[in-house]
Amino acid sequence: MTLKKTTGGGGIEMDNIAKDIDATTTPVRPPAKMGRPKQNPHAEDKKLTIRVPADLHRKLRYASVDLDKPMVEIAVDALIAYLAKHEG
């Protein structure tokens, strides 16, 4: 912060102090991400919450990375295949 002295009376010029304080206290935000977020094909479907064993979750997470597909998409595809196989 720079302060300017006035020539008379030894006082401090107050004009720039407020600007300096604002500049040092205003947080700087990182630039916002541009573009549309990636959506999976099942984003508008009904929600189902299930609990799975930790080992199965880990395998699903690794498969998600290997296949470059969201975990929910892999799970829904597996449910569709299972139900198609077992429908009478």
Structural features, described:
Helices cover 47% and strands 0% of the residues. The chain is mainly alpha-helical and 88 residues long. The N and C termini lie far apart (78 Å). The model has no long low-confidence stretch (mean pLDDT 78).
Largest sheet: none
Order of helices and strands: HHH
Provide mean pLDDT, rounded.
Answer: 78
Q: Which structural category do the helix and sheet elements fall into?
A: mainly alpha
The N- and C-terminal alpha carbons lie at a distance of 78 Å
- The number of distinct β-strands equals 0
Q: What count of helical segments does DSSP give?
A: 3
Helix content: 40-55%
Low-confidence stretches: none
- What is the radius of gyration computed over CA atoms, rounded to a whole number of angstroms? 29 Å
Percent range for β-strand residues: under 5%
Q: What form results from the Cα inertia axes?
A: elongated
Quick structural summary:
This protein is mainly α. It has helices spanning 15-25, 54-67, 71-86.
Give the SSE map:
Blueprint: H1 15-25, H2 54-67, H3 71-86
Defining traits:
mainly alpha; 88 residues; 47% helix; single chain
